[in-house]
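lol ok so funny story. i was supposed to be doing the assay writeup but got distracted and ended up predicting the structure for this chain instead. priorities right. anyway since i did it might as well share w the group, maybe its usefull for someone
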Amino acid sequence: MNLDGKTILVVGGATGIGQATALLCAQRGADVIVADFNEAEGQASAGKANGTFVSVDVTDEASVKAMAARIASSHGKLDALVQTAGILKGAYVSLEDFELATLRQVMDVNTIGSFLCAKYTAPLLKKGQMPAIILLSSPAAYGVSSSYAYAMSKGGVSALGTTMAGKLAPEGIRVNVLFPGGINTVMKRSVIEEDALRKGEDPQAAVEAAQSRGLGEPSGVAKVLAFLVSDEADYVRGSVHTR
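and the output, tada:
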């Protein structure tokens, strides 16, 4: 699968699924832009991909707007936006004890952040060749999550993607929402450790047990994302699920 000539923006590309996607897209010939709040790891990831790093806070509209303006100046267009930036807060907190500030923080990053990234990169995508927007949701959007805030935020991402898919299709922009399963990331491992601690169990043993049961790897999800930003995925519509 060849991504030569494509300019791909990976938001949240410093670590995890985002980093794996940036590296794989670069290996397949794309000009990769890594955007992240984590500057040190984001620059390292961009360096490994022989790409460009742009600092961004997806909760800050001015920051996202500035990111898009910088990309417009340096690259002129985008062929794909892959929005992987996300957080999980409030795991295993009861409804009565769940703080509104936590809810707002998670919604700001996961849902509002996805909206802002799409809003400000859309003009650049319209200049691209067979452009695509890929948002990351989660099975938490329709199942039982460890966090009320995470479930709400990912449900919002799913609805956002569905609506954008219909509204942006006439403008030539394809939108897909990816639902990764249990993936071996820092965020996933931290939730497993937190669950083990509240049960009085060994957190390291819990992580190892989960890995042995088959947590997926970020590199596996990256293969799906690299396909979705390619021209070969032109006929893919709607939601896409991975292990």
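The chain has two domains: 7-181+218-241, 183-215. The CA atoms of residues 68 and 121 lie 6 Å apart.
back to the writeup now i swear
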